[in-house]
Every structure is written in structure tokens, then in C-alpha cells.
């Protein structure tokens, strides 16, 4: 299990924005992952999608890593932000955009 934790830790620390999701940003495999992808794409934020379906160790490991039971999981600059509901609520309130700005991540939204 340490391997999966190491992989997760590396992804979280080496990418400004990481989404652990079911499927890929191009082909999300669940509605919740798809919603977060749509929000990130709308904001024009560069991010890395990690497909948890490709590795059972990572799929279970990410839940242990964050102590959060569901996927997708969004990380910004090494900090766990939340899953689909939290990300959507933050986006609708403008808090997600502010978080990216505070962390120095360029948002290129059209709205």
C-alpha cells in the first residue's frame, strides 16, 4: 500500500491542480467526476486528471490519503479541497475562483 500512497503523494505535490477521478478529463466515467471536469475546464485552469479506475491501490489509497470516502477528489497546491459537491458549491459562490487566485493559479474564465 505504501506504493499507492507514494504515487498519490507525488501527484499531489508535483502538480498545482490534481483531480483524482473515475475516467480521464477527456472521458469522465461518472457524473460527479464529469461535473468537476466541467468546472475546471470552464475556469480554464490547467490540471492533471488521475484515473483511479486504472489502479485499485490508488482508488482505495486516495480515500485513505484524504480521509474522504468518495471520488472525485480535488487538490490544489497540495491541499485537499473536496469532492464534487464542495467543488460545485465553492464554484457557484465564487470561492473556488478566489482560492485559485490566492494560490497564484491563473483562471481564464469567460464569464
Explain what you see:
- It comes from Microvirga subterranea.
- This protein has 111 residues and is an alpha+beta fold.
- It has a single domain, classed as Glutaredoxin (3-Layer(aba) Sandwich), CATH 3.40.30.10.
- The chain is 50% helix and 15% strand.
- It contains five helices and four strands, in the order αβαβαββαα.
- The chain has a four-stranded mixed beta sheet, with helices on both faces.
- Strand 1, helix 2 and strand 2 form a beta-alpha-beta unit.
- Helix 1 packs across helix 3.
- The longest helix has 13 residues.
Predict the CATH topology: Glutaredoxin
Low-confidence stretches: none
CATH architecture: 3-Layer(aba) Sandwich
Number of strands: 4
User: What percentage of amino acids are in beta strands?
Assistant: 15-25%
How are strands sequenced across the largest beta sheet? Answer: 2-1-3-4
Based on secondary structure, the structural category is alpha+beta
CATH homologous superfamily name? Answer: Glutaredoxin
Tell me the distance between the termini. Answer: 43 Å
Q: Main β-sheet, in a few words?
A: 4 strands, mixed
CATH class: Alpha Beta
Order of helices and strands: HEHEHEEHH
Instruction: State the helicity in percent bands.
Output: 40-55%
Number of helical regions: 5
Q: Mean pLDDT, rounded to whole units?
A: 95
Rg calculated over all Cα atoms: 13 Å
State the shape: globular
Count of discrete domains = 1
